[in-house]
Structures are given as C-alpha cells and as structure tokens.
Amino acid sequence: MTDRPKPLPQLAGVNAYVPGEAPKYTGGPSYKLASNENPLGASPKAKAVHVEMAGKLDIYPDGTAKDLKAAIAKKHGLDPNRLVVGAGSDEIFLMLGRAYLGPGDESICTAHAFAIYAIIAQQQGSTVVEVAEKSFTADVDAILAAVTPRTKIVWLANPNNPTGTYLPYDEVKRLHAGLPSNVLLVLDGAYAEFVRKNDYASGIELASQFENVMMTRTFSKLYGLAGLRVGWGYAPAHIVDAIERVRMPFNVNLAAQAVAIAALEDEAFVEASLAHNDRELVRLAGELRALGLDVIDGVGNFCVAKFPETKGKTAAEALAYMKERGVTVRGLGGYKMPNHLRVSVGTVEANNAALKLLKEFLGK
To answer: What is the pLDDT of residues 254-265, one digit of tens each?
Structure first.
C-alpha cells in the first residue's frame, strides 16, 4: 500500500462522543428525552433577538465577546476580565486540554464522568485516570489518592452528568485543599442552576480566590440555547491568558452572543423553567420508583433509573421499546452503567408519554 497521511497515533484510542438520539417518527407525537434540553424551549425574548440577527449574518462577531462578558459579569457579580466564552462549555474544555495537557501528562475524572473530559485528554496524547465513585457520587479521597506528579487537571462536573449526583461545597473545598497548587481543578457547573440544596455552590468563590480553579457554565440547559452553543468560564487571569492563546478567533458567533444576552435578561422565563423542573423532576422520579425502579437521587434536570437484568426487562430493551414508539431516552452503556437509563425532564405531555411506555414495557 502506498504511504498516505497519518493522524496522530493517540487518535486511534479516541471514541467519538455519542449524543442523545432523536425519536423515531411514528406518525404521531414524538418526544426526545435524551439530551437534557429545556422542555420549555428558549426565552421568547431570546427568540426575538435571534430573528433580528438574520439581518446581520454578513458581519463578523466581536471576537472578544465584550458585551456578552459584561452581561454575564453583571448577572453574577464577576470581573469580566476573568471570563472566557466558548461554543458551549465543551469548547472551553477543549481549550483547557490544548493549553495544559500533552503526552506524558495525566488528568483525573470519576468513573461515570461526562465523556468529553476523557475524549479531550486522549486527543492530547495524555493519560486519563478514572477513579471509582461512591453510590454514583464523586469520592474526594479517591480523587486525591490518584494524584501523581504527572497530574495536570482534575475534572469535576458538579452536579455530575449522567448520574445527577453532587458534592456539597465543603467537599469541593476539601478536594481543592488537598490538590497540589500546580494542578488545575475544573468545576463544570452545567447543571448548577437547577440545584436546590443549601450545601451546594457552583465554585465561583473558589475560582475567585485561588490560582488553580476554573468554573464553567453553559447556556445549553436552563437557558434553552443548546442549538447555538454558548458556554462561559471564570478563572484567574493567567488561565484566561492561556485560553486566549489557543482560542480560535470569532469562536462564539454573532447571533449566539446577542441571543445569550437576551436570555440572561429574561428572568421570568428562567423562573418558569426552574419551577417546571422542580415540579416535574419530583414527579418523574416518584413515578419511576412506583414502577419498581431504583432511581438515583439527582439534582439536575433528569432522572437516572436502574432496570432489572432479567431478559425482557433490561435497560437496553426498554430503550429500544420506547424509541420504536416515539420516545427516546439516554442509554448509559457508554458510561459503564449498562443497566441504567437517563430520562430528561420534558414537558408534562412528554413525561406522561415516557411513563406510559415504561409501564407497558414493565407490565405494570
């Protein structure tokens, strides 16, 4: 065979990220409960701005995203100079990988962590160290025990996706206190807004006080802007500087920046979204338990339920049964949880449809 261009050798071990599936069209209503999207859609104000932006598609966006950073800073009481924005928080993780990971380096994540952390680390040719969890929750002692002189990043989604569990703020602070000062702690707060626990904090305070902490957030979940890809992070100046050196110009598009600002300002929509999630998360979890399923206590906008291993009742079979009938949920085999399914909180109608199918499938 003739020689041909060869990709970097580490890419051979990278499995591409697999997103939640869209439902199969059955001729009737169909519902996607596989990607933790906002069931109420996006803010009416954000939608109106998106329409307005159609007349400006020929214009480059502001490469510094100055107005968006100012809006985020105002909302959260932050220094805009310590903000970074990305095409979703995924891109921020990618930039962190480019800036801080290379061959011979290690990064740590928990056994059921968001898959993108490991993908990015592998792309950089670095080693991914996965540590065990306790009851599907990050274990601070296990993480600290895994730190070596080669550790460069500790990734922690809090709350975690796909399990929905969280670490209280005291435990996050204990984790940070136990890390060497040259190890970067990345706190992924994609689901932070949904948490209604007094002992929780997203990590803004740690990122404000210390030189080795970065906290990230997203507009994809609560704000319903998953299709536009907007995320942001808060970090010390030297980390912001490193990210800016690897960031591609104009990485957050013109419409995304303007729509995200409008979404931040529509507090009524945000409150309505949170109120809906509060109601339906409790109901969905309760109904799943009533079906005899073991449901993980989660604090996000989704439920995770364990299915029997009995043939005819398994998670894989339930997933296929629902998909064929117009409802998709998330299989978690790729997260080493083959007996679990993740069900996003949808509209009342969508949740009812999912519960109806599960009752039929389980013979209840």
So the answer is: 999 999 999 999
Q: How far apart are CA 135 and CA 296, in angstroms?
A: 9
Strands 184-188 and 213-218: parallel
CA distance 314 to 253: 43
Which residues is 213 bridged to in the sheet? 185
Task: Report pLDDT digits (tens) over 164-201.
Answer: 999 999 999 999 999 999 999 999 999 999 999 999 99
Please, where in the chain does CATH 3.40.640.10 lie?
Answer: 44-266
Q: Which of 349, 319, 329, 360 is nearest to 29 (CA)?
A: 349
Smallest CA-to-CA distance from 150 within 126, 133, 172 is with 126
For residue range 232-279, list pLDDT tens digits in order: 999 999 999 999 999 999 999 999 999 999 999 999 999 999 999 999
The pLDDT tens digits for 18-55 are 888 888 877 889 999 999 999 999 999 999 999 999 99
Task: Write phi, then psi, for 241 (nearest 5 degrees).
Answer: -60, -45
Residue range(s) of every CATH 3.90.1150.10 domain in the chain: 9-42+268-362
**How far out from the chain centre does Cα 249 lie?**
24
Q: Class assignment of domain 9-42+268-362? A: alpha beta
Closest by CA position to 203, among listed 231, 243, 182, 176? 176
Question: How confident is the model at residue 1, as a pLDDT?
Answer: 57
* Main-chain phi, psi angles of 115, to 5 degrees: -60, -25
Give pairs for 120-128: CB < 8 Å, separation 24+: 120/93, 120/94, 120/96, 121/97, 121/153, 122/10, 122/11, 122/13, 122/14, 123/10, 123/11, 123/14, 123/97, 124/10, 124/97, 124/98, 125/8, 125/9, 125/10, 126/97, 126/101, 126/102, 126/152
**Burial bucket for residue 19 (CB in 10 Å: 0-12, 13-18, 19+):** exposed
H/E stretch holding 151: strand 151-157
CATH number of 44-266: 3.40.640.10
